[in-house]
Structures are given as C-alpha cells and as structure tokens.
Amino acid sequence: RWYAEALRRNDLPGAAVPILRRVQDDQRQLDGSDTPRVRNAIFQLGLALAEAGELGEALTLLRETLALEVKHNGSDDNEDRRAYRGAFAAVLGFARRTDEALALLPRSAAGPQPLPETPSRGEMIDHLRHARLLAMTGDARGAARMADDAAQRADEAHAQYRAEALHVAAFNARLQRRNTPALALAQQAWSDAGRTKARPSIQAAMAAELAAALIERGDLAQAEPIVRQSLALFEQAQVVPSPRSATAWIVQARLHLQAGRTDEAEAALRPLRVAWEAAHPQSDWHGETLHWLARVQARRGDVQGQRALDHLAAPLLRASPLPALRALVAPP
Questions:
Q1: Other CB atoms closer than 10 Å to residue 86's CB: what's the count?
Q2: Percent of the chain predicted with pLDDT > 90
Q3: pLDDT tens per residue across span 32-48
Q4: DSSP readout, 67-115?
C-alpha cells in the first residue's frame, strides 16, 4: 500500500491503481466486513483513479468512503470526515460537477474569504480550487477576485501557485469569451518561473489553456506545438482522456478538423465522450464534446449523424452559464 501511495504522490497514479485494487480486495478478505481499514483502502484507490482521470469510478468509491465514515462514526465531525469531504469536493471539481463541489466547501455569509497574509500550501490549494469552481459556474467576478488574491499572496516559496492563479484567471476569462485577456493571462501563466515547480498534470492544464486561447484567436500554427506539449505532459502524469484533460483533447480535435483529418479528430473525441458519460453526462462540457463530434460528422457529409449529435449537444450547451459554451449553439 505504501508503495502505491508513493507512486500516486509522485504523479504515477496509473501505476498505483492495480496495486491499490489488490490492497482493497485483500483488506476486504482479511477483515470480512467494511472496517475503517477497508474504508481507507477504498479511499486511496478512489484518489488514484481520480488523479488518473478515471472519474466515474473514482466518484463512486469516494461516495462509498463518505457513507462508510458516517456509518462508523455517526454524526460526529472528525478529521477523517473533513479529509474525505475535501477530497470528494476536489474530485467533483475535476468532473466539473460544480454545484455539488461548492456544497461541500465551508460556507460564509460574506462569500469566499480572502487569503491570510502568509497562506499555507493547503490554504492556497483550496483557494484556487474554489476560484476555478466559481469560474465554471459563471461567477466571473468572484473567480477573478480569488485568482488575483492568490497571485498577490504567492511568494517565492509558493511560486507555482502564482502561475496556477494566472492559469485560473485565463480559464475564467476564456469562459466569458474575453479572448484577448485570456490569451495574455495564459501566456503569463506559461512563462511564469513558478510554472515548472507545478505538478506535470497542472503544467499540462496550463499548456492546454494556452493552446485553447491561441485557437480562439485563430492562431493554429502556435496552438499545435503547445497542445502536443500538453498531451505529452498528461501522458507523463498518467492522466487518460477525461474531463481532467478535456481542454487539450478538444483543441487537438479542432486542429485535426481544420486540417481535414476527420478520423484523427474523432479518435481524439470518442474517449472523451465516454469519460463524460461516466463522470457527468448532463454537463454542458459533455455538450461541448458532442458539438465537436457533430462537426466531424458534418465534415464527412453525414447529415443524419451530425443532427443526432447536435440534438444531444444543444440542450446541454443552451443551459450552460458560460458564454463560451452557449456560443457553440448561438445562431450565426
């Protein structure tokens, strides 16, 4: 178990998953019931699956972890429950299940609280996760305020969080279709000295965001090498095609489409569709994947296939709080 946890913490979650499956099975067989040790084995497997992008199964396991903790400890608040809830909120964020994730965060009548003068690593991580969730709900002002707060508070000891804050700000701007500031912020995040201190999966997300901003500007030539770098970093971090890596795969598919490579575009999108169906089938982001799959069929001249996919995508996109996604179904 300790070896598997070390693999996960060193950005090798895919290698950890089969080991943690055996640990979970062995612990169940040894204990004969759902003991706290079994609960922890389930939790560790759920975390590894989430970090690898296998979010459907990860969410199931983390829900089971929380249910077992309540079964074991009743209504008593405790450190384990807070840790499980925090991890579950983070994974819900990976799946872009924003309302559920926000419901698990500590509440304040005054809204999200500013960071202290010298925030801890944990406070910085939680703050940036919260900012990203706000961006995905369409609360652009709240997200921008929290991202700016994190960028201002990140000293050299936390330099990677300055780059991450710029990345969240870029993401937030792009979702609002503020493409010029989105590109500038994404470029700042990628060129920030702290970026190289971030985990490979986070650097991959930063590269994907820069590629997305470039493609929105129509700069395909610059976007292509950046998205290749993003996908290489996701592969290094053992993150499969999933909501975690969705931005990179969407950009890759769009580049293939622009070049007339419909088979390659479909190959980039099909695993993403399966992942969304497992993690969050009613998501507006699932609608985005379906929209680009429809464009693949349109490029092939398959009108029936295009219409079927557009029929699935349109209600998801129209219900989005995000201008960038709603624009995909806006009348020309």
A1: 17
A2: 89
A3: 999 999 999 999 999 99
A4: HHHHHHHTT---HHHHHHHHHHHHHHHHTT-HHHHHHTSPP-TT-SPPP
Q: What single letter denotes the amino acid at residue 249?
A: W
Termini Cα distance of the chain: 55
Name the residue among 36, 123, 45 with its Cα closest to residue 81. Answer: 36
Q: d(Cα 124, Cα 324) in Å, to the nearest integer?
A: 27
**275-331 confidence digits (pLDDT tens):** 999 999 999 999 999 999 999 999 999 999 999 999 999 999 999 999 999 999 977
**Alpha-carbon distances of 175 from 89, 134, 180, 272, rounded to whole Å:** 21, 11, 12, 20
Contact 41, 1 (CB under 8 A): yes
Closest CA to 161 of 213, 116, 202, 204: 202
**pTM, 2 dp:** 0.95
- For 324: left if phi > 0, alpha if psi spans -120 to 50, otherwise beta; the answer is alpha
